[in-house]
Amino acid sequence: MTAPVLALVGATGAVGTVMIDIMNTRSDFPWGEVRLIASPRSAGKKINVRGQDLTVVALSPEAFDGVDIAMFDVPDEVSAQWAPIAAERGAIAIDNSGAFRMDADVPLVVPEVNADQIDNRPRGIIANPNCTTLSMMASLGALHREFELKELVVASYQAASGAGQSGIDRLYAEIAALAGKEAGVAAGDVAQVLAAAGLSADDSPFPAPLVLNVVPWAGSLKDAGWSSEELKVRNEARKILGIPDLKVSATCVRVPVVTTHSLSVHATFAREVTVEAAHKIFEEQPTIVLIDDPAAGKFPTPADVVGGDPTYVGRVRQALDFPNTLDFFVCGDNLRKGAALNTYEVAEELAKRL
Amino acid sequence: MTAPVLALVGATGAVGTVMIDIMNTRSDFPWGEVRLIASPRSAGKKINVRGQDLTVVALSPEAFDGVDIAMFDVPDEVSAQWAPIAAERGAIAIDNSGAFRMDADVPLVVPEVNADQIDNRPRGIIANPNCTTLSMMASLGALHREFELKELVVASYQAASGAGQSGIDRLYAEIAALAGKEAGVAAGDVAQVLAAAGLSADDSPFPAPLVLNVVPWAGSLKDAGWSSEELKVRNEARKILGIPDLKVSATCVRVPVVTTHSLSVHATFAREVTVEAAHKIFEEQPTIVLIDDPAAGKFPTPADVVGGDPTYVGRVRQALDFPNTLDFFVCGDNLRKGAALNTYEVAEELAKRL
C-alpha cells in the first residue's frame, strides 16, 4: 500500500509545536504526507517538518480528504465538532481533548498499557488521556499486569503548561515581577508584588498567584467539591486499566514548575509487592526510567526530566502499614508523554495496522 | 506566686526570631522576666521584647538559674546536650528539635490535641513536633475526637524555610539567578542557569534546584528508602494522637515556597464522616480557619496563610470510593504553628499550671 497520510489539527498551538518537534526527531517516519491544519487565522503559515516547509491549511471538511490519521490538539469544543467530521471523511481521529475520553464507543489508549483497544473504535475516534492521568499510566499499567491494582491515592504537582501557553506566560510574568524584590518579598506579599507590577489576578489562568505558591485547584468544579481534573484522574485510570471498580482518590495541585507533572502515588494491589519486584518491572519497561537511589541523592525531579519521552519513577517504598502497597513518585513531561507523544505513539500503532 | 521566668534558647535563629515576634504581639503576657539565650557568638546582642531592650546571654548552666520554662529553638545536638541541663537547674524545657520527640518519657504536645500530656514529663522535658506533622495535627486531632482516625495517606508541599535560614536564602538566590532569563529558560535549563550564576549545587541545603522545580526529598535516608521526614510524620502523628497502630504513608516533597507547609491528606476513620460534619468541626475549632468554597475560587494557599497563627483547611471532600474517608488540603505557617507558636502555646499552658 502507499504510505499513509497524517494530519495534525492544531499545528500552531502549544502541544502542536511539541508534536512537530517529535515528528522532526523520530528515527522512523512511516508517513507519505503530513498535512498541517489550524484555524483560518494561522492558515498560510509555513512550518518546517523534516526539512520541508509545509503550509498550514485552514480547518475545513475538505482538509481531511485523503487523510488516513488525523491527530487533534485543540480545545474540547473544536474536537467535539471536528473529530466526527474527520472520521466521516474517512480518517481515524486521535483526539487529545476531553471531548470523547469517557465515550463508551471511543477507546482511551496508552500504547504500552492497552494498545489492544486501538482496534475497537466504532466511531472512528480514539481518545488520548488527560496529561495528569498519563503521567502515571506507564508505571501503574506495568505494576497492574503483575500485581492487580485495587486502590490508588494520588496527589499531584502539576506544571503551569498544563494550562496551555497562557499558563507558561503567566508563570514567567510572575517570576519577572519578583525580579529585584526577592530578598524583600515575604511569601505573603506575593499578591501585592504582582498587582504592583501590573499583573491583574483577573488575567491569570490560575485562581491564585503561582510563583512562590502552590494552588490546590485545576480544572472546573464538579459535584461535591471535586475538581474536573481530579475526576479525570479517577475515571480515565479506570477506563485505561480496565478496572471499573478501581478505588481512587486524587488531589490535584498546581505548582510553580513550567513543564512536567509529578505525582505522589500510593497504590494498593491484590498481591504482595516488594520494592525489588517493582524495580525489576520498571527497569524492564522501555518507556520508564527508574531513578531511585536516595543515598546518592538520586530521584526524579521535573527539572531533570523535562523534554524527555519516558516517565521517570523513583522513591519506591513498600508501605510500612498497608499490605500489598507501594508508595512512589513519578515525573512525566506533560506536553510530551502527557499529550503530543502519546497521541503520536497511537498514530504509529495505527500506521502498523493500516 | 511571682510571675514565672521564661527563657528562649536560640533567640537569634530563624525560629527564635519568629518567637520574639510572637511574644511582642501576644495580648496576654504572663511572664515576669524573659531571658534570651544564644551561642556565645551572639551574646551581648540586644533584642527588643515588648518595649524593653534585652541583652542576649551566652548558653551556660547558670543561664537557666531561676528560669521556670526554657524554650529551645536550636539544632538537635544542642538540645540533646542542654535541655537536660536546663531541667536539672529546675526549668521545664520545651524543645523544638528532634532530639526528644520519640523518647517515651517525653510528651509530644500540640495543646489543642493533647494538652493533658503536658503534666506527664518525668524528664522535665516536653517536645514540640516536627513542622510537617504539626501542619495537620489541629485538623486531624479535631476529626479524630469525633470519628476515630484509622489510616492516613499524606503528600506534602514543604517550604524552603523548613530547611532554616539557609533554605530561604538559597531559594531567593535561585530566583535572583533567573532574573532576566525567565522568557528564555526552559525548566530543564534551570541547573545550568544556576551554575552560570555561580550558585553551586554543593552549597545548597536542597539536593536539586528548587526554583521552577519540586524535590521529593526532605531529611536524611532511613530504612528501606524512607526519608527521616516521612517517618517523623508517621511516628509523631501516632504519638500525638495516641494511636500506636495508626496506619500512615507519607511522601515529603519540597516546593519553591518560602514559608508555609501544605499537605494533601487522605484520612480514613472508624465511623462515617461527611463533609458537613467535618466543616462543622473545623469551624468550631478556634485554631483552624476553614476556607472551602471552590465555586468562588476559595481554598487555602501558602501565600494567603503565611504569617498567620491558625491552620487553614479547605478542599474537604468525601472520598468517592473509600468508606469513612475524607480528602482535604491544609496549609500552616511552618515557622509559627509549625515551630515557634506551638512551643509558645505549650509554655502558656504550663504558665497556667505553675
| Apparent shape of chain A | globular
Strand content of chain A: 15-25%
Question: Largest beta sheet of chain A: what is the strand line-up?
Answer: 5-2-1-6-7-8
Terminal CA distance of chain A reads 9 Å
Instruction: Encode the helix/strand succession of chain A as letters.
Output: EHEEEEEHEHEHEHHHEEHEHEEH
Gross CATH architecture of the largest domain in chain A? 2-Layer Sandwich
Q: Helix share of residues of chain A?
A: 25-40%
Per CATH, the class of the largest domain in chain A reads Alpha Beta
User: CATH topology of the largest domain in chain A, what is it called?
Assistant: Dihydrodipicolinate Reductase, domain 2
Query: If you compute it from the alpha carbons, what radius of gyration of chain A comes out, rounded to the nearest whole angstrom?
Result: 21 Å
Q: Give the oligomeric state of the chains in this entry, treating copies of one chain as homo and distinct chains as hetero.
A: homodimer
GO biological process, one term (chains A, B): lysine biosynthetic process via diaminopimelate
Domain Semialdehyde dehydrogenase NAD-binding (chains A, B): 5-121
Keywords (chains A, B): Amino-acid biosynthesis, Diaminopimelate biosynthesis, Lysine biosynthesis, Methionine biosynthesis, NADP, Oxidoreductase, Threonine biosynthesis
Pfam families (chains A, B): Semialdhyde_dh (PF01118), Semialdhyde_dhC (PF02774)
